[in-house]
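Re-run requested by the PI after the first attempt was lost when the workstation crashed. Everything re-entered from the original request form. Ligand of interest: zinc ion.
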Amino acid sequence: MIMKFRFLGGADIVGRMGMTIEGDGKTMLVEYGMSPTKPPEYPIAAPKIDHLFLTHCHLDHCGMVPAVCGRDDCEVFTTPLSAEISEIMLYDSLKIAKAEGYMEPYTASDVEKTMELVVPFGFKDTVELGKTDVTLHSAGHIPGAAMFEFKYDHNTLYTGDLHTADQKLVLGAKPIKCKNLIIEGTYGGRNHPSRDETVDDFIAKIDEVIDRGGTVIIPCFAVGRTQEIMIILKDLGYEMWVDGMGRSVTGLFLNYPEYLRDPRSMRAARKNFREVKTSSMRKPASKGQIIVTTGGMLDGGPVLGYLRSLKDDPKSAILLVGYQAEDTNGRLLLETGSIVLDGEMVKIECEVQKYDFSAHAGHDEIVEFARKCEPENIVIMHSETRELFLPDLQDYNIILPELGKEFELDV
Ligand SMILES: [Zn+2]
Ligand SMILES: [Zn+2]
């Protein structure tokens, strides 16, 4: 059966994902996200949708789902963990839009309605939607993150964000045999350094900063990175604090232990960190030895308060462990040593270092995964450097989709 595919966003960029599949009398939507830039950016408007598939709860994948569900009453297939965290992210994103004076692309009641429309779905579960069978598999990206396998006459695998190497939180994704592979390519042309070496360097730097009497600030995204770092640091024996939305996400992860590689290590990590539960606890935390806190790109969240207290202390250090997008404070700090704080450019005297703890597969890992799926057609998305895969994937029919332009696959 020939079906029509169209990217509404996120074909040749990392952000605001959305892809429709049209055929057999219905239209399905895989992910519908937004880019939390200033101002936020959105995908192309979605046509009327019958079924929606959400891979995971990062805003670039889930951030616009309520705009569709509020309008179309379509079921949302996702893991219960992704649904619960998405709910937090969506309300938070509404709050930010309100605070910063941006248009709100959906209402709080659209979020409520979305949650009512969720059909919770575990890994290896299959749902029959007419003649299409859809099965979920772990994407190895963050807990609860799924790949979707659509089976009509043939298999089509949509990976969403993907990691194939094992992390502390989740094991790497396993290839699925398919005719059509729709795969993310964030790291086209780049490979990650060895994770073990990165962890060793990271811990050596933490020891060094604490030995010289400084405090280590680790700005982290709330979902995934905060918990991965907490597990890595759990046995160091330092006075460690965790602040921001990552705290409640850790609680949610522990409510769904089946999505964690090792729930015991997550529980132990939570026990060894002190939680900043009220704003008055930020003062003692800023005198502690390690602070793991949102926001990961220094654009908001409690991290700014810690930077205010520690910015003039050259003994302290800011260890960046996540992607720093353009036009963010994190990128500015790496490039100029300053950030914008309360509307002013402020010099940061702390040491700044960056470590690669990415939850996405590197170039060679993507190529290996793709080959093991033994596809005929490979569609590369979620990438600004997709062309760099072409030399390594010459044996396949490669499709580099363009925003809004239809292409066809035999599914
Ligand atoms: Zn993601
Ligand atoms: Zn993504």
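Saved to the shared folder this time. The CA atoms of residues 127 and 134 lie 5 Å apart.
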